[in-house]
Amino acid sequence: MMELRNAIERIYDLGGPVVLLLCAMSVVVLSVVLYKLWQFHSAGVGRHRALGQAVAAWDGGDRSDARRHLKRSTSYLAPVIAMAMAGQEDGARLEAEAEMRFASLERGFRLLDSVAQLAPLLGLFGTVLGMISAFQALQEAGSQVDPSILAGGIWVALLTTAVGLAVAMPTSVVLSWFEARMDKERVLAGQSLRAILSPAGRDQGFGTQQGRMPEPVEPRRPSHA
Q1: CA distance 33 to 22
Q2: In the 3-class helix/strand/coil scheme, how is 169-186 assigned residue by residue?
Q3: Is the separation of the CB atoms in 76 and 44 below 8 Å?
Q4: Which of 97, 61, 106 has the alpha carbon at shortest distance from 78?
Q5: Nearest C-alpha neighbor of 188 from the set 41, 32, 93, 80
Q6: At a CB cut-off of 8 Å and minimum separation 6, what does 106 contact?
Q7: Contact of 124 with 168, CB cutoff 8 Å
Q8: Who has the most CB within 10 Å: 18, 32, 116, 145?
Q9: Are 139 and 117 in contact (CB under 8 A)?
Q10: What is the pTM of this model?
Q11: What are 21-61's pLDDT values in tens digits?
């Protein structure tokens, strides 16, 4: 406990409260990223081989083989596809079920986006505070000006900007990667639902009478507003 306290005090002495706040934000970001990676892995994001085989079999008219492949799937989209195969032909309902699962996977994206935007601004804020302190010290020195006073203040001020950028840039890259993965998941869900509700092996007129094909699930980035 004392070691942690000493480390916090050293960070505070080095860059002031702004650097300390940025370090705390980096810990939060790392925790969120690790959790999202675990969540994506547990949900089977990107691992839809059995699901794809089930959809392909259904599209080809082999219903029993499609259900057999679907039972082997560990994808988080499997319940939605099973609902469609069981006779649910309301495209809006199926799309809503898929979106509910997407929303769970995208939880935390807004926090990462906020950190990516705020970290550089906090670093700039720390730089301004450091420059103010440096010039105040220079003024108090009067005629006995020591260049090291100004140089030390500028060094601390620029440090906050560097730390802010160091926190923001990796966060922005990781968030973009997460969002790109979710875009691909939306495309896959839309294509799979279209194939189930309007398979190539079924007469198109029958499909028009019995069910309504859902609108394609357009890839979109979650709102961070």
Answers
A1: 16
A2: HHHHHHHHHHHHHHHHHH
A3: yes
A4: 97
A5: 80
A6: 178, 182, 222
A7: no
A8: 18
A9: no
A10: 0.77
A11: 898 999 999 999 999 999 999 988 888 889 989 999 988 88
